[in-house]
Protein 1
Amino acid sequence: MKIGTLFGFEAAHILPHHGGKCSRPHGHSYRLEVVVEGPLQHDGPATGMVMDFGDVKAVVRRLVIETLDHNDLNAVIPNPTAEEIVTWIWGRLEPELPNLRRLVLWETASAYAALER
């Protein structure tokens, strides 16, 4: 069974190796989809759930959103392309969400980077 939740954050960046307008400072309203997979739990407070959505949200907010929201992404990730950002996010989340299976980072309404395992 898989469950997922969505997050949003605002951030600015430049792409230092880009030859076009993205080499200038600009920002995005990012959307992040986080998917975890696992069996339904059979006891405890998460009975009938893969994982409590509130627990997923708390981890993502603490490890990702608090760092990236309203920030200069170049201060966190040297070349913050969508692909590099989603890879960075995976590295932060996987230790605390070992059943992480998919991340989708929407940089615009029509462009995203996804990482699945």
Protein 2
Amino acid sequence: MRILNWMIAVSLAGWLFSARPLAADGAAAIFDVVILHGRVMDPETNLDAIRNVGISNGKIREISENELRGKETIEARGLVVAPGFVDLHEHGQEPRNYQFQARDGVTTSLELEAGTDDVDKWYAEREGKALINFGVSVGHIPVRMRVMKDPGTFLPTGDAAHREATAEELKAINEGIDRGLKRGGLAVGMGINYTAAATHEEILEVFRIAASANASVHVHLRHAGLKEPTTGLVGLQEVIADAVASGAPLHVVHITSMGLRTTPTLLEVIKGARARGLDVTTECYPYTAGSTALESAIFDEGWQERQGITYKDVQWTKTGERLTAETFAKYRKEGGVVVVFSIPEEAARAAVSDTLVMIASDGMPITGSKVHPRGQATFARVLGHYVRQEKVLSLMTALRKMTLMPAQRLEKRAPIFRDKGRIRAGGDADITIFDPAKVIDKATFADPLQPSGGIPFVLVNGIAVVRDGQLVNDVFPGRAARAPMQ
């Protein structure tokens, strides 16, 4: 027995030694990048300790208490070394948005609510040109808009919003969803609130198509707000029923803007469904206002009563002015983005602090000087305001909600996400390094185009895109995050 134990010990020691890369001369390898003396926090293993990280060829190669050598060295003493943040819900998928996101610690930006009707084209437009990783769903909204020849741009304003689809149109919509999934769309995006005329049967059929591809359905509920029978709870009950009937995984987007003051009730319903085996998840952004297009179906007749707000709670982003009955009518005809102050602080705090709820920005394209700050500052706001200042959740819990949980939401369909959201050997070197005592959101509703502070380094696939708190010019290490194609 002693001989057997000795042989096992020798074999284990040899494996541990060989696991560390060696140079040709037998010395410890020189990595492309080494992060030294940082507080490494990994939500998957709960590692929270001072470690050194070696990176080569875009991958994390070693996590060690020993000193490592690198061609480039990042001194991280006093800083947290965390997985790069994965944003499941970001509509601004352009270079300027990516710059703000990188400075907010985001390394993977995903448009999964609205999505696209042409997955191949969407990815091709960003390949080799992106600061951070990027990905998209096939979207029920844009597919429906194309099939029904809707005149809207981002959101429908014509038939796709206000008319039931014919049998022929339904066939084309379903074929478009199926095609997008076969071309590697990460999920199915759905905004039923914006396609209010879509029948319950149409929505159920989309769930069935998603289930056949093992794709999660990321849903903006049919209803939001406080007025029966069109409350957020009613909207949630519809899609939970569809998930049960179809077997499709369900992800409810921005739960606070759906439930408003009843957000805790919606969270309890989701927890009950999960306790009974349903694959349902949700997300929130850490703000008391939402943002959307003024010309959309959300502002159809009765919007004030449904949402419990009035004109003065709506801000026109092009000028920053709060609306009146006259300016509401004028700008609704013109079309554009508004910020909508409708979420109680208690609801925002309840969702941010709940261990079930992921963090996602719902950031908007930068179209005016008063765009919502969430696309620029969501993650730093959680870490600075809610973790450090409000102390409503722990740092590790916050990181888990920003990294591991979003990756796990997608990894069954898209195995690429098994290497994201973690700090582990073999994982993607998407890493955010921040100062837990200084990280903070600087973007405000009054001055939203301000980058976050306290995040000195961000690496995407092992390449620094933020160094010493500043963007690195002329680097495009972002890669497509895509499901396998058929």
Protein 3
Amino acid sequence: MESMRQKFLAVFFLILFIITLHGAPAQASAPAFSSPSAILMDAKNGLILAEKSAYEKRPIASTTKIMTAILAMQRKSLDDTATVSPEAADAGGSELALSPGEQRTIEELLYGLMLRSANDASIVLAEEVGESTSNFVNLMNEEAEKIGAKKTHFVNPHGLYDPNHYSTAYDLALIARYGLKNPLFAQIVSTKERAISWPGSPTPVVIENRNKLLRQYPYAIGIKTGYVKESGYCLVGAAAKNGVQLITVILGAPSSKVTYEDTIKLLEYGFNNFKRQKVVEKGRVYQKVELPMFAKEKLALKAARDLTILQGDGLEAKKKMRVRKNLTLPIFKNQKLGQITVTQGNQELGKIDLIASKKVPKPSLAQRFLIFLKTLLY
């Protein structure tokens, strides 16, 4: 018996030693990659799953056109037409070869912008939406500010290099996340090829999406490539799998091949190491509060809705409760009386209202008198 006891203790202390040595199971490390700036973000709530120099300002080339497309979709209908100006026709770089005076629908211009990365289409859209390129650029910067892209500054609608035209991997992920909320944007950036009419041609011309991620990765749904000499190779990517939608940004990669390799590494890391979990459950009681004039009774406060987030091993969501002070009667069922704030690390992931589980009427005059007597007696 004593021998068995000694063996048991030996095994117990060996396990304890191993746990102490290695610690609790940890989240798998983010993959190593050669691009100088990158980010992996949960599209649902903006949770950052991995990043490298993601807040560093860098030239962003044609990923600029994400914002151009967002503004055009917000302010114009697909069947509206726009006239190509001489300035647009002379844009240079990647283009649709538009001619001065040519008429194009907004739909054709948007597909040309996001699939062919057409600089001439970007200027036509800018002039049509903003009435001038400079006015449109002001709209771009205003929209970036609203989205929360604080380290972004646009000078043109296409992304050709200018030292004052820049963004960050984090800001571009925010802008892409905002864009994906628009079903039309999501549809266009996930399109592999599109036939559009062509002047002088009896049949439509098919333009292919230059974003090879749509062909290289089975879960890819977008979004936009970019390259100028000064920026290096850039790619804003997105993919969806099993109810999880992820956004990636790669800036300054040394080659096009590297942008896709690093993007796929990040996406695989996200899909394989994070699972969506419910951290706040609708209808569950998270707090109880004392009621005025009813010292012995507490009112249960329940969550108004669910909150699910991506979580990996070693990561824990924290909940902070805030309840309204100095409650007054009556209180109505489902009345908001507080809030749960959910955080993970230093990131806020959501706020959920705490609501009253039942109605509490205001006491009658007789009830208030009895309560007053109790306070005198006790």
